[in-house]
Amino acid sequence: METLRHIVLFVHLIGFAVLFGAWAVQAFGGKREFTRLMSIGMSIAAVAGLVLAAPWGLPDGAEMNYAKIGTKLVILLVIGALLGIGTARQKRGEKIAPAVFWLVGILTATNAGIAAIW
Question: Origin, by domain of life (predicted)?
Answer without folding.
Answer: Bacteria
